[in-house]
Amino acid sequence: MRFTTLLPGAALALGLLAGCARTPSTSGVASPTEPPALEAIRETEIRRDLFSLASDSMRGRRAGTPDELRAAIWVAERARAAGLQPAGDDGTYFQLYPLHRITVAPNSRMSLNGQPLALWKDAWVTAPISARLTGPVVWLNSLADTVRRDLRGKIVAMSLLPPTPLPVANISLRGMRYALAAIGQQSAALRARGVAGIILAADAMTEPSLEFVGHRYQDGQYLLPSMPVPPAPIPVLLVRQAMAATLQAPKARFQAELDLNDFEYPSINVVARVPGTDPELRKENVLFSGHHDHDGIGTPVAGDSIWNGADDNATVSVALLAIGRAWKQRPGARSALFVWHGAEERGLLGSRWFVDHPTVPKSSIVAVLNGDMMGRNSPDSAALLGSTAPHRNSEALVNMALKANQNVSKFTLDNSWDDAKHPEGWYFRSDHLPYARAGIPALFFTTLLHPDYHTPRDEASRIDVAKLTRMTRWMYATGWAVSATPQRLTQDPDFKLER
Asked: What residue intervals traverse the membrane (predicted)?
């Protein structure tokens, strides 16, 4: 599918947003510890932008859809209005890149004992695949049954079994993690016996999470063109718990005609810049990073089908706009580069693309200050990931951020989430990661997860806007210190991630 088919009028929109005024130089020497435009970061403006970007009208901003592109144009227009210069491709605010998406085709058909099964309501195909299945169902009570029977070429069914080890208590999306691990382990064991297809009936732990698990499977697989397509050797289906009785009945028979859609369409990064004031240091960039996409429209939960993504990550998208307004008012010695990445929720694809195809020389990026989810939980708590080993890749950058927190925001910092053994692995789940892997000093500002994470309950009305404003000022003050320090930051020589 070509870009022009998904974004009518894109050329007009890009043209309208292409230009803005040049930033005048200012005189004087900037102080790294005295950010001059803190008061330009205002709670009222952050609230206004947050309720716009996280509104139902944005439809959850799912990557690769017109909704994501509409949100990107909204961000670019706000950046233009703030006086930020375009820094994307071809003199625009935009960097379009192709997403390779593979989904289960909506014309796929399934039936059990001749009764149709509704795709994404009764049964979920766990990986896109083109396959035909027909035949009797062999029910297994346990994996021990695989030793006593020849299952080659059979359609097997059984209840989902708990994975080993179980997800730890209180982990985010525990039901989804449980289901994904269980399906992966169980289907691997059955595939080793040469089965032709697998049907797993949800257990009591998975059944309440089917909407969330199913939302993931319905999304399909998103890849950049350079990434290999994960193999799907045989069909693996997840069905509702109540279907187990029918699958166990004598002469149960299953039929499926599964097809896939395989196509490319655009995602988008938004890139803007405020030039620095120092004749030499302005050639270097302090990069402020966030993502503007979220999960889009899905199966309704309590009557709500829109995953608004207010905290994840409209909070940081509007924070970057606020920092941009402050930087425009009082530019730093180094230039400020703002990148709103697309397709973060699909696997950090926008930041991966930008690292491989930067719109400024990669060597000019002196530091990356990334934010993800900055508006929930206790008013005085926050976290700075990348601040402790093995995730710290620049001691000097960490010290600047800690000093800025001490002087400006005064949060109590929770370092436990930076531990390599933390079960969330939160460091590896946001857009700073590709930059850190590329050798660029990088930090991750966050107020951490909460029960509304990746649910339709992540609404703007639940955001602590006062806290978000403090987090925004902390990011700004840290970036100001990076911009004003004469010496360029370096990466720690012993930096090596655990995975």
From this structure: none
The answer, yes or no, to whether residue 16 has pLDDT greater than 80, is: no
Could you state, in order of their start, the residue ranges of all structural domains in the chain? 3-100+264-484, 106-258
E strand intervals along 408-457: 412-413, 442-446
Beta strands in 40-90, from DSSP E residues, in sequence order: 85-86
106 burial class (0-12, 13-18, 19+ CB within 10 angstroms)? exposed
Is the CATH number 3.40.630.10 carried by domain 3-100+264-484? Answer: yes
294 and 315 Cβ atoms separated by less than 8 Å: no
How far apart CA 85 and CA 275 sit, in angstroms, is 8
Between CA 258 and CA 245, with CA 122 as vertex, the angle to 5 degrees is 110
pLDDT surpasses 90 at 302:
no
Dist CA 339 CA 45 (whole Å): 20
How would CATH label the architecture of 106-258? 3-Layer(bba) Sandwich (3.50)
What is the rounded CA–CA span in Å between residue 383 and residue 379? 12
pLDDT digits (tens, 9 = 90+) for 470-484: 999 999 999 999 999
Token couple for 67? 């909704």
Q: Which residues contact 378 (CB under 8 A, 6 or more apart)?
A: none
Strand partners, 460: none
DSSP 8-state class, residue 62 = B
Spatial CA neighbour of 320 closest among 370, 284, 380, 377: 370
Measured CA to CA, the distance from residue 452 to residue 443 in angstroms comes to: 24
* Whether the predicted model's global pTM rises above the 0.85 cut: yes
Evaluate if residue 8 carries a pLDDT over 60. Answer: no
